[in-house]
Amino acid sequence: GWVLSAKQRHRLVESARRHDCMLIEDAAYAYLVNDTPPPLVALAPERTVYVSSLAKSLASGLRFGFIVAPEDCTSRIKTTIRASYW
Known about the structure:
The protein is of the alpha+beta class. Helices cover 37% and strands 16% of the residues. The chain has 4 helices and 3 strands; from the N terminus they run αβαβαβα. The longest helix has 13 residues. The model has no long low-confidence stretch (mean pLDDT 88).
């Protein structure tokens, strides 16, 4: 895995805001890194979809994940997940 430094995260957020882009952060393996910088969702909650899972860190047989997303994106995300996985 690869983790962006705090400086890289700030630059990415600045660029996403400048170009009006959404960010998706997959943090399923974030628990493996010591001293991880704050997640992108902490820096830009209005444009970040944060995805993680307990299956990697807690129990491999447990199929449980979660998403933190801006309010205006949640219904589209729910619809997409239900249509493609559940």
